[in-house]
Q: What sequence folds into this?
């Protein structure tokens, strides 16, 4: 035959991939260093299409990287830094071992460090790219900023994360870009819109840490290291875009307000600055003083291909957005001490409200609880003894629900001690045919500007009754749907009976004008056609058709089930209430 | 194989070198320090053999080559030229057998060299192969790439020089390396290779390995209000709490949906009539329908009209009706089938596309893990949530639980307990002091 012998695994997929260990050896790095490098550079493992082919016939679980990626890593200057650091550690250990303290000092002074700036620039060529990847960065920073300083990770990292997170929060407040909040058991989800990009992040509740053991802290710390660098750049750029001073400074006017009256300060200005900032109660200084122009309306030129309707819709949307941004404008909130201060202050300030808290709770309180101008007092206890007239006492959920509903919700549902309506997620997208909780329906009606059931502000019972009626009506519908076929059959039977009756009674009666119900006739005809069509189908088609219909029915059934559960739940609640009432009366 | 091809009287070169009969110019034959140099310094004898110790057949050959070259030098110095030249040139002093030996020794050396190159013959063939191909204008891949590069540089559109803005004025940076000056504005590839410019990130790395969002917001079941128990009740149905229809969307009638479907069909029917479907059979005999209750609603029978004629007419009418229905239904079923097949094809294609483009999950559990298995439940720590999310998006490899130091500790503890037990046996001491006691004893 002749020709060269073709060897296995020397061409094709096998040559495109490289195992982690081989890559590590090629780069002359230890495994942790290699991992760190990959995370920093954004090189991720790949799953080959045919693992066995790449793995030289073996099925051992191995991690593969693209050879190209590893070759790209070879050029990275940080690799050298890693190696230098390895040497540094070796030397340091040796010096310690020999107790050569002078050498130790010298070595420590010359400790090799690396910067990630160039990697950030490389990975995010444009600012929008960086913004798109901000979800992870923010979540990580907020998470690390809540870590206890117990040595799980560096204290400096925690402090840096805290600073960056506070800076970002201040930016969101200044730009009023928050859109959605959802309080979950795990943490609080926020969504902001920064330069047209929706950015979602999650923040854990303060002091709620059990430290999971199945999480690799080193990996997370490496991610955080990179993301803090990224967030630093992004924050700077964002502050620039708003004409704010970076690093953030509190507005001088606000600073005066913040100064304690007695002149007793518990810390120096420089020390407590971050804390003041993290109070989130003061506005930030601007690089160029804002000039209060009369809001000049820009001339709008229609873009080509855009109809007037579209323009109108856009304009309406814009108006709604502006309204949403100014949701709490003019309102003055006071947070009681048991209320989670930071999320509430953040959300309230994001929508233009003013907020304060007890002086002893946190730095940055601007007015006291006795201030008569307070409109909303947020408390989270069943009742308050001394209530001031002229302000609403509300549970914290009102703030979040109002933000999500884009309007100040009626306060009656949120009075202290009242059973709250469920906290609905604003992140859920609407789909047809799914179960909608009645609360959501009500909310939608409110948003549309209707008053859902005049009984809303009337007594509770009435409302309940109404609800019941509604539900009953719903139920009827459901039954109709379920048994519509049967009903049709029934109708047919009735008609037949009528006919037979008419044939049986041989009396001649005065002729009645038959009112021909056109619609009904049409319906009948249609249903008839349907039945026939189904009958005439081939077996395969019929099977298919039934399958489709079954799927649809199941969906409806599921929705009905949920509705029923809800009804049962409500009924149970109502009974409980009645019992309570009776007990009270007795 | 090589030795077989030589005549029986030939010896190996080192044998020849050692043989007295061989040229006396051999360094081994020389008296004095040259002879002593035969005994090679083999490094410190009490050390292990390292890579410095030069041994093996290649080393032998190398040494012989060295000898040979030294020999050549010696010849040139002593005899004023190579002996072989002298042989063939002016003074044939040697016997023919000696001459043969000299010449043969040289060629044998050459042949050994060729033999010793790893894959020498193959490489030679390959070289020849590519030479032949090059004559036809076909080059190996590497060369093709380089040539393409060259061509590209020749292209004025893409050359980096033309993209560079014109220099406004000469600015002399005192800190800059003057050797870098000629590199300015050079070909980026060249600069990258000479480490004067960071290597560009390839665009394929800008694509995320997974299209999943970084932060997946959990459904409404995950909030604190209503209380957790209620969530368990409501969410017990498989976690599909979240959907929200439009107002009144839930309770849309089943038949309503169906009606819509038929509406679509009707529209379809009206729009296009396919010529290909002529499969509609003729009307089915009336007997087929006679027994079924289909005809009920349509024949209007009043007691006054009992004549045969009327009956027949009404029957005819119903039959016609039925035939019409039947035809319609047939056509409809065909359309329906067509629609359905098209829908299924679309679905299949879409699914295939998703499967093709979607990145595989890393690790063993490639497809199986669902949403809730990965710790995305309503409760749980944000840290784990983040970690799992990273794993899910293929950013880091999914690994089994990181091993903490517990395993080692337990082992150690076991030992300690042993000590304690022993000490207790000995004198009822506490386990902590047990070890010490044991030592002293």
A:
């Amino acid at each position: 035959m002749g020709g060269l012998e073709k060897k296995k695994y020397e061409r094709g997929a096998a040559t495109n991939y490289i195992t982690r260990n081989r890559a590590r050896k090629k780069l002359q790095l230890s495994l942790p260093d290699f991992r760190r490098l990959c995370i920093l550079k954004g090189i991720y493992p790949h799953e080959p299409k045919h693992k066995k082919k790449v793995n030289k016939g073996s099925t051992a679980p191995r991690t593969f990287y693209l050879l190209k990626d590893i070759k790209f890593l070879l050029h990275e200057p940080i690799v050298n830094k890693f190696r230098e650091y390895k040497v540094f550690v070796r030397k340091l250990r040796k010096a310690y071992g020999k107790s050569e303290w002078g050498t130790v000092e010298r070595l420590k002074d010359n400790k090799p460090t690396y910067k990630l700036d160039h990697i950030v620039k490389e990975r995010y060529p444009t600012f929008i790219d960086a913004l798109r990847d901000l979800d992870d960065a923010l979540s990580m920073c907020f998470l690390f900023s809540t870590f206890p300083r117990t040595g799980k990770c560096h204290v400096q990292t925690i402090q840096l994360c805290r600073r960056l997170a506070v800076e970002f929060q201040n930016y969101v407040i200044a730009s009023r870009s928050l859109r959605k909040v959802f309080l979950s058991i795990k943490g609080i989800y926020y969504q902001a819109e920064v330069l047209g990009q929706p950015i979602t992040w999650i923040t854990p509740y303060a002091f709620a840490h059990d430290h999971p053991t199945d999480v690799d802290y080193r990996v997370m710390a490496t991610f955080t290291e990179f993301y803090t660098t990224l967030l630093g750049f992004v924050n700077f750029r964002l502050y620039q875009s708003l004409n704010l001073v970076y690093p953030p400074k509190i507005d001088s006017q606000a600073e005066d307000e913040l100064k304690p009256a007695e002149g007793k300060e518990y810390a120096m200005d420089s020390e407590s600055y971050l804390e003041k900032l993290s109070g989130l109660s003061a506005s930030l200084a601007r690089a160029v003083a804002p000039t209060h122009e009369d809001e000049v309306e820009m001339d709008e030129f229609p873009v080509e291909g855009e109809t007037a309707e579209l323009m109108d819709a856009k304009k309406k949307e814009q108006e709604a957005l502006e309204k949403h941004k100014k949701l709490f404008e003019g309102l003055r909130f006071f947070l009681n001490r048991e209320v989670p201060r930071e999320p509430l202050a953040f959300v309230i300030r994001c929508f233009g409200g003013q907020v304060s808290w007890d002086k002893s709770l946190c730095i940055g309180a601007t007015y006291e609880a006795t201030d008569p101008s307070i409109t909303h007092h947020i408390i989270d206890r069943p009742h308050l003894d001394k209530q001031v007239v002229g302000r609403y006492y509300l549970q914290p959920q009102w703030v979040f629900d109002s933000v999500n509903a884009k309007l100040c919700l009626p306060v009656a549902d949120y009075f202290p001690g009242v059973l709250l309506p469920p906290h609905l997620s604003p992140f859920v997208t609407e789909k047809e045919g799914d179960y909608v909780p009645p609360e959501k329906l009500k909310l939608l009606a409110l948003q549309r500007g209707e008053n859902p059931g005049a009984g809303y502000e009337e007594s509770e019972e009435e409302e309940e009754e109404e609800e019941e009626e509604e539900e009953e009506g719903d139920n009827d519908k459901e039954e109709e749907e379920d048994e519509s076929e049967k009903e049709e059959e029934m109708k047919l039977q009735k008609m037949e009976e009528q006919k037979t009756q008419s044939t049986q009674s041989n009396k001649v009666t005065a002729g009645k004008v038959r009112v021909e119900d056109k619609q009904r006739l049409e319906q009948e005809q249609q249903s008839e056609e349907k039945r026939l069509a189904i009958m005439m189908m081939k077996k395969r088609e019929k099977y298919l058709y039934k399958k489709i219909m079954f799927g649809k029915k199941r969906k409806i059934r599921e929705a009905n089930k949920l509705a029923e559960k809800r009804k049962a739940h409500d009924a149970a609640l109502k009974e409980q209430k009645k019992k309570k009432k009776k007990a009270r009366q007795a | 194989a090589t030795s077989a091809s030589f005549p029986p009287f030939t010896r190996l070169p080192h044998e020849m070198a050692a043989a007295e009969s061989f040229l006396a110019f051999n360094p081994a034959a020389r008296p004095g320090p040259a002879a002593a140099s035969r005994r090679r310094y083999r490094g410190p004898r009490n050390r292990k053999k390292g890579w410095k110790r030069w041994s093996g057949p290649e080393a032998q050959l190398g040494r012989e080559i060295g000898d040979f070259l030294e020999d050549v030098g010696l010849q040139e110095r002593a005899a004023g030229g190579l002996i072989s030249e002298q042989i063939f040139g002016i003074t044939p002093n040697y016997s023919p057998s000696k001459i043969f030996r000299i010449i043969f020794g040289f060629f044998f050396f050459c042949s050994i060299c060729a033999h010793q190159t790893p894959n020498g013959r193959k490489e030679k063939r390959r070289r020849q192969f590519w030479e032949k191909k090059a004559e036809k204008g076909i080059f190996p891949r590497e060369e093709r790439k380089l040539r393409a590069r060259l061509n590209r540089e020749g292209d004025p559109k893409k050359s980096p020089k033309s993209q560079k803005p014109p220099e406004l004025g000469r600015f002399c940076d005192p800190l800059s390396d003057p050797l870098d000056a000629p590199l300015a504005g050079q070909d980026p590839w060249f600069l990258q290779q000479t480490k004067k410019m960071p290597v560009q990130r390839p665009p394929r790395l800008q694509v995320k390995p997974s299209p999943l969002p970084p932060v997946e917001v959990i459904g409404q079941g995950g909030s604190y209000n209503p209380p957790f128990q209620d969530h368990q009740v409501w969410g017990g149905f498989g976690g599909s709490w979240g959907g929200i229809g439009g107002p009144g969307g839930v309770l849309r009638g089943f038949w309503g949906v169906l009606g819509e479907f038929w509406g679509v069909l009707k529209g379809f029917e009206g729009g296009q009539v396919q010529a290909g479907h002529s499969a509609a059979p003729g009307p089915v005999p009336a007997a087929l329908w006679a027994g079924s209750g289909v005809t009920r609603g349509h024949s209007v029978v009043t007691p006054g009209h009992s004549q045969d004629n009327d009956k027949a007419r009404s029957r005819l009418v119903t039959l016609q009706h039925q035939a019409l229905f039947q035809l319609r239904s047939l056509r409809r079923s065909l359309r329906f089938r067509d629609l359905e097949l098209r829908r299924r094809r679309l679905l299949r294609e879409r699914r295939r596309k998703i499967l093709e483009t979607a990145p595989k999950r890393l690790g063993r559990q490639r497809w199986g893990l669902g949403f809730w298995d990965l710790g995305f439940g309503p409760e749980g720590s944000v840290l784990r949530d983040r970690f799992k999310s990273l794993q899910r998006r293929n950013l880091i490899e999914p690994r089994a639980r990181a091993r903490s130091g517990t395993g080692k500790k337990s082992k150690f503890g076991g030992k300690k307990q042993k000590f304690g037990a022993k000490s207790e046996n000995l004198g009822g001491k506490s386990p902590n002091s047990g070890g010490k006691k044991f030592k002293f004893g």
Notes: The mean pLDDT of chain A is 82.
